[in-house]
């Protein structure tokens, strides 16, 4: 294994019972340590199936998965799960504690972490996600955004090398989504954690180092956000969204307004339109 590759997946195949086609169809991809990779694709493209395969939640028909040098197997699955933290779409499915503090501590208790160290990690994780004042609250009485931050705190406390976000921001309002993503960005900068984001949210994908596109259980393309979003119409044909500046660029191009072919962020679009306006 390349020492810089923390995740290596080769020729994965998986078919759900009574399914008409493979959910994963010869899927191969590798992810570097410290990289943020967004996995995008329409519903049924294999995104969540791929995420669940990485820590042994699925019994694959064929293929191999290597996590930080460890081939996934019955013998290694628990060692690998200690390296991976997963935050799911619905945080209610992850809560087991009677209070926020108890819930964040649960995973550490299972790992047998010494009490003083456990208390330090819980406090640090809750502080990071801005939930300190809710330590004694019942998770079920929190808002959706607060619940997701608590779920994230429970994973942060375990200090995994890899964080997998499986549509983790999809149930949040824009403000809650931004807060969660900012927390993860800060954590990644401080720890060089590897982040794998399974998402429909185009802004979340745009913040990644690399985007991997799935369709029919296969990797059909990958590249930087600028490279992928520049495809424009191709993404729309696959049932995916594109950032608003790209939609605006396509509309202006149809009207005969000169627009560069490369990817535009909002800031670049504003600068370009301002430049055009000043020349008129």
Automatic annotation (TrEMBL):
Residues 7-241 form the ABC transporter domain. CDD domains: ABC_cobalt_CbiO_domain1 (cd03225). It is found in: Cell membrane. SUPFAM superfamilies: P-loop containing nucleoside triphosphate hydrolases (SSF52540). It is a peripheral membrane protein. Keywords: ATP-binding, Cell membrane, Membrane, Nucleotide-binding, Translocase, Transport. GO terms for cellular component: ATP-binding cassette (ABC) transporter complex. One of its GO terms (molecular function) is ATP hydrolysis activity. NCBIfam families: ECF_ATPase_1, PRK13635.1, PRK13648.1. Belongs to the ABC transporter superfamily. This is Energy-coupling factor ABC transporter ATP-binding protein. The lineage of its organism: Bacteria, Bacillati, Bacillota, Bacilli, Lactobacillales.
